[in-house]
Each structure stands twice: as C-alpha cells, then as structure tokens.
Design goal:
- With 160 residues, this protein is mainly alpha-helical.
- The chain has helices at residues 8-21, 28-37, 42-55, 62-85, 89-101, 110-115, 121-133, 149-159, and strands at 25-26, 58-59, 137-139, 144-146.
- It is elongated.
- Helix content is 66%, strand content 6%.
C-alpha cells in the first residue's frame, strides 16, 4: 500500500513539535530542503528526522541534514554493495545512469545512451526489465527513478 506524502506544513509542525519538546528547534527552510529532497515521502523523511533527533537539539543548517543522511548511507552501504554484486555490468550501468539523472523520461533515447556511454537500446530494455522486477527502478508519470531514495543517493555518492 502506497501512502501519499503528508502536506509539508503539517509534517513540519509535527517535526518541530518533537524538537521543541526536547528544548530544541528545527529551521523551517532546512525542513523544506529535506522535504523536497525526498518528495515528501514519509519513510525517508522519518528516517532522517529520527537520526537528526538522536544527533541534534537545534537543526539550523542543511549541513546537519547532510550529516544525518551520510550516517544512514554508511549504515546501509554493505546492503547496497551486496545489491550491486547481484547485477550484471549492464544492469549496474543503467542503474547508475538513472541515479545520476534522478529521473529519466526516455531510457532508450540516443542522448541518454550517449551521455552515459550505455550499450544498445535493446540491452537497456533488458536491464530495465530486471531492475524493475527487482524493485530497484520504478516508473513514475515523469519517468524512471531509482525506487529506494537512499540507494539513489548512495549511487550518486559512490559512482557519480
């Protein structure tokens, strides 16, 4: 079951109340940047907010959010490395290319293939089928994305 994102204002009020309860604060602009990064999806926001709540009293700068995300990526690194070992070179290349571009409307377009030095369109199609079957890539109305937003960030940090 997919939950739609909560409205940003409602989510900010919720998060800021938790920080205020521990005599802290959460800057609204910093929260907006975090919310935007994950398109408002609760699971990712909650993961980062939990980490921030453990690490910080006052969240005043986006660098604090980056540090929290980096700790999450570090914790998940071995899991993501394992995922990569089960993919073929072609599948890894396509996954990295999607991560690099964030969202790809046409995976088999010549510009995309050339930009990322990918093999033929038919090879991309085969790789995409496997990546979608493994729930690593998802098709939205705007295009293809790496389904796990933390994996997307890990791929960018590791390979891009």
């Amino acid at each position: 079951m997919t939950l739609q994102p909560l409205h940003e204002e409602i989510y900010y009020d919720f998060a800021s109340r938790w920080f205020e309860a521990k005599k802290g604060s959460f800057n609204e602009e910093v929260f907006h940047q975090l919310y935007t990064l994950f398109d408002g999806y609760t699971w990712y926001l909650q993961s980062v907010l939990n980490r921030l709540y453990e690490m910080e009293c006052h969240v005043t700068d986006y660098q604090q959010v980056r540090e929290a995300i980096l700790t999450i990526l570090k914790d998940r690194s071995s899991q993501y490395e394992m995922v990569m070992t089960f993919l073929t070179d072609n599948q890894r290349s396509v996954l990295k290319a999607i991560a690099k571009d964030n969202c790809v409307a046409q995976l088999q377009a010549n510009d995309f293939i050339r930009k990322h030095e990918l093999p033929s369109a038919s090879s991309i199609k085969k790789a995409l089928t496997v990546l979608m079957d493994k729930d690593l890539v998802y098709q939205t109305t705007k295009g293809y994305i790496v389904y796990d937003r933390f994996l997307n960030l890990w791929l960018k940090r590791t390979f891009c």
